[in-house]
């Protein structure tokens, strides 16, 4: 009985079941249920239940049946029952005549249960023991290679530069699609913070191979990882397509951790699109869904994404809590690249909360991890965080060797320079806006205009991408059993357009962009101070901004006022 079967082999199992009788039928039921454990877990459980009365005198098949049910219940977050079935399978393994492969498969099932529980050390140990077991057994090349590939894949989360998972990693002659799906994913992880474009290709190939072999969870995770890599490169169309595909499959499985993960990726994507309230709503739903699962990577991802959305809403103090929780869970899970990336987010949160020393301390730790593990693509994030920190806290010491007028400019230009080292990277409009504003403040209108011109062009391109891909499937809230009316990004953009400023609010915003005080605005527009305050409140609400500067930045990025204002 193979660990994972191809679609053609699955068809053979279906045909065998149709004609099987007696003990042969029991064998066929167990074999098919085993291969459907992720492809179609409700049917797998039904076949397993049908098989149970036929297995009384067949301890080997009973053990296999228990492992099938254990893995499915782990995916459903019914963890105590999953542990009980794993223990039952192991008791049966002591009976004479049980296939040795089932003993090894029990180790791989234990790893799946440990993953669902968030027990990282136990998971890695189970995979390592499984690899050693099949290597010693020596009679099943697929299991041997897959167990070794699982070890490499899981280790790549903690030490992304490790395990020989490079482009040169060789496959054994016996390696099949299941093994290649894991190897490609491991290579993708090692490259995701170095060469994201290549990582996206590897993740998509891994997802396709995993789907063919019935490794549904792995296929969904790889598809989401591809989306993240593409999103980081500014390729919103392909990123959205990945998230849609992953979310559609996750919903079909009914597995809380997978559904919550797909909701998290959507929430992070909506934040990138500037749809902050929608992002917050989806991420809150993700955390509700993930409440059924133990704390771990999935919940850490959701906390992190929520913190970044709160930051975008100008609620930096509120962002520190969920970001701290995310970092704690990443430390426990030994997820190095996620930890480094979220320390960058923590730095931004501390800065927004008026805590520059704490922000710089978080950045120092992130930089140490980046250097230690070669996460070169994250250097862009370090430079951008430093630019934001120095922009907010102009009294901080200037960096050594600075030649530009301000530290914020120094780091903003460094962000652009580092980003251009990454293949297929595009400078986001927000960075170009920051550069335009910083050069304008420094009195260099020529450079300010050049960055503003590029920002407008990039903003047009980003807007076209953002509005071109429907998000109807992704905006469903399965966790509450309800589905709001399908909406596309374009429709959401129309809602934003309904919040257009009045002519008077537009005039006030133009003066705000020129750093006029409330009293100066009142004098120019011949209105009272309280009237100015009332208009400013409405402007902040419509632009979802938390400060005067945030309102101006949002208005420019949304095209409400020009970059020259």
Please tag this protein with its features:
single chain; 565 residues; mainly alpha; Serine Threonine Protein Phosphatase 5, Tetratricopeptide repeat; Arc Repressor Mutant, subunit A; 27 helices; 72% helix; 0% strand
Give the secondary structure arrangement, pairings included.
Layout: H1 7-19, H2 22-35, H3 41-51, H4 59-75, H5 79-92, H6 100-117, H7 120-137, H8 141-158, H9 177-191, H10 196-212, H11 216-232, H12 236-253, H13 256-272, H14 276-290, H15 297-312, H16 316-333, H17 336-352, H18 356-373, H19 379-392, H20 407-419, H21 429-441, H22 445-468, H23 489-497, H24 503-513, H25 518-525, H26 529-543, H27 548-557
CATH topology term of the domain at 7-137: Serine Threonine Protein Phosphatase 5, Tetratricopeptide repeat
Low-confidence stretches: 163-174, 467-499
Euclidean distance between termini CA atoms: 70 Å
CATH architecture field of the domain at 7-137 = Alpha Horseshoe
CATH class of the domain at 7-137: Mainly Alpha
How would you classify the helix and strand content by structural class?
mainly alpha
**Average predicted local confidence, pLDDT:** 84
Instruction: Give the CA-based shape.
Output: elongated
Radius of gyration (CA) equals 27 Å
Roughly how much helix do the residues carry, as a percent range? over 70%
Query: How does the major sheet shape up?
Result: none
Q: Name the helix and strand elements from N-terminus to C-terminus, one letter apiece.
A: HHHHHHHHHHHHHHHHHHHHHHHHHHH
């Amino acid at each position: 009985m193979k660990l994972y079967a191809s679609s053609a082999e699955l068809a053979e199992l279906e045909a065998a079941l149709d004609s099987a009788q007696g003990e042969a039928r029991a064998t066929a039921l167990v074999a098919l249920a085993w291969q459907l454990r992720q492809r179609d877990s409700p049917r797998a459980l039904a076949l397993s239940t049908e098989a149970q009365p036929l297995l009384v005198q067949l301890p080997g098949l009973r053990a296999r049946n228990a492992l099938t049910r254990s893995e499915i219940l782990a995916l459903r977050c019914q963890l105590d029952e999953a542990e009980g079935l794993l223990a039952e399978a192991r008791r049966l393994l002591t009976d004479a005549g049980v296939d040795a492969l089932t003993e090894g498969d029990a180790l791989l099932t234990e790893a799946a249960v440990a993953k669902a529980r968030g027990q990282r050390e136990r998971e890695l140990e189970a995979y390592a023991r499984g690899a050693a077991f099949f290597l010693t057994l020596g009679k099943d090349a697929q299991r041997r290679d897959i167990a070794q590939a699982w070890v490499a894949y899981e280790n790549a989360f903690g030490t992304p530069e490790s395990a020989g998972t490079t482009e040169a990693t060789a496959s054994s002659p016996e390696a099949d699609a299941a093994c290649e799906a894991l190897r490609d994913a491991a290579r993708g992880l090692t490259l995701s913070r170095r060469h994201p474009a290549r990582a996206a290709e590897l993740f998509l190939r891994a997802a396709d191979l995993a789907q063919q072999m019935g490794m549904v969870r792995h296929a969904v995770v790889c598809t989401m990882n591809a989306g993240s890599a593409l999103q980081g490169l500014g390729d919103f169309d392909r990123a959205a397509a990945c998230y849609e595909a992953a979310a559609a499959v996750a919903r079909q499985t009914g597995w809380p951790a997978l559904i919550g993960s797909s909701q998290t990726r959507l929430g992070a994507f909506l934040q990138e699109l500037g749809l902050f309230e929608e992002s917050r709503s989806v991420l809150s739903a993700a955390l509700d869904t993930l409440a059924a699962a133990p704390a771990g990577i999935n919940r850490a991802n959701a906390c992190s994404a929520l913190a970044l959305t709160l930051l975008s809403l100008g609620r930096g103090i509120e962002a520190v809590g969920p970001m701290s929780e995310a970092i704690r869970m990443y430390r426990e899970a030994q997820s190095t690249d996620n930890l480094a990336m979220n320390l960058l987010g923590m730095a931004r949160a501390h800065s927004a909360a008026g805590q520059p020393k704490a922000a710089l301390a978080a950045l120092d730790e992130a930089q140490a991890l980046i250097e230690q593990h070669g996460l070169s693509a994250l250097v862009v994030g370090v430079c951008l965080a430093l630019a934001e920190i120095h922009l907010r806290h102009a009294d901080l010491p200037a960096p050594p060797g600075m030649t530009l007028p301000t530290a914020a400019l120094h780091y903003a230009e460094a962000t652009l320079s580092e980003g251009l080292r990454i293949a297929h990277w595009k400078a986001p409009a927000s960075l170009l806006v920051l550069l335009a504003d910083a050069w304008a403040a420094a009195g260099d209108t020529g450079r300010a205009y050049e960055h503003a011109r590029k920002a407008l062009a990039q903003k047009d391109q980003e807007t076209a991408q953002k509005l071109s891909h429907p998000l109807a499937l992704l905006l469903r809230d399965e966790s509450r059993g309800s589905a709001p009316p399908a909406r596309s990004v374009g429709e959401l953009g129309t809602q934003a357009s309904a919040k257009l400023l009045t002519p008077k609010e537009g005039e006030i915003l133009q003066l705000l962009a020129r750093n006029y005080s409330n009293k100066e605005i009142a004098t120019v527009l011949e209105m009272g101070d309280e009237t100015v305050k009332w208009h400013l409140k409405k402007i902040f609400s419509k632009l979802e901004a938390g400060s005067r500067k945030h309102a101006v930045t949002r208005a420019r990025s949304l095209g409400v006022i020009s970059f020259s204002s």
